């Protein structure tokens, strides 16, 4: 089974030589209703920005300056149905609970240029920290209070070749990945002069905790916080980390699925999916690469599960809030090392199967009582099947779409490959010694299992 570990490309640019031409506020194209948007207990723990960059090759019919004007107009229009995007976070004066004040204050739009052609900025799949230059969160010259941070920033950066990058930073409170994909589809449709394919459903009270809240399950995936703490924010701990991408082709994934089949006559409930087999492999390698990999140590792995169709009644497909909860799988390191692969895949699948309507409601109520955060050895965050690269803008689909990544050993990312769309890239950041062990476990398993 072939696999590639991608080292830092030697030609990686550390400075894209970006110059800013303008920064402005985009306001809704018409007056919107002044209201407060309730934030669910899922939304409240996601108060941080997520940054994505979408790269577009040269299109003679849509040079960057034309795209800039189209986007300004389109964003003003989309801020009417997505009025919360133009709002600001506020604490409710009566309850102290965080909410969005839909005050029409607007989003930030920046225009910039790079001295390089797109083909010269290097491997788009490799998450170059310099891609952060393609998303500005500056409000200079806007006369804005820096404490009054917008919930969304757009930046168009043109390249010497005529291609451009569209950088977007949105507070995770606004969207989860699925809702953001729908937003991008809606943005593309409006830019093409078409109606919204999916009208957004903005009412987060559909995920309000029960009254009184009651917790019916043990929630090993969550960590209690003191009630005096403010709404929690995930923060990275500065650390010297090695950084690698492990590439799995579609053939590699097919082989893993074969290895995940249980012996004849063994009954298991878990579906053998690409996500489940890749996650099981990554979990095993991460746990066994730890400096404490004694056989009795328990490793707990987390990943997000979409609860839209798991609730009763289901959430609307167009729900714009965060419709995901954290699932967990636990096992002793000795089991992760010695158990047959199908058992690890089964444990990964059981994590999602556990997420019933009753369990999800219990987790939401748990958040109302304890106001905690997800807690495990690491979180596997999957961008693999979100489909950002499939959005049809008037100027074409992106050559590639990716998150702007910061190195954290407690988060492992899955994202699609630019050449093999059915393959997946596994992005891992670990201390050097742990990375050596992770890489050894990864290659050894694929070669010898």
From TrEMBL:
Superkingdom as given in the UniProt entry: Eukaryota
InterPro entries referenced in this protein's UniProt entry, alphabetically: CAT-like_dom_sf (IPR023213), Plant_Fungal_Acyltransferase (IPR050317)
Coiled coil: none
Gene3D superfamilies tied to this protein: Chloramphenicol acetyltransferase-like domain (3.30.559.10)
GO molecular function: acyltransferase activity, transferring groups other than amino-acyl groups
Pfam assignment, any one: Transferase
Database matches in PANTHER family: ACYLTRANSFERASE GLAUCE (PTHR31642:SF189), TRICHOTHECENE 3-O-ACETYLTRANSFERASE (PTHR31642)
Family assignment from sequence similarity: Belongs to the plant acyltransferase family.
Descriptive protein name: Omega-hydroxypalmitate O-feruloyl transferase
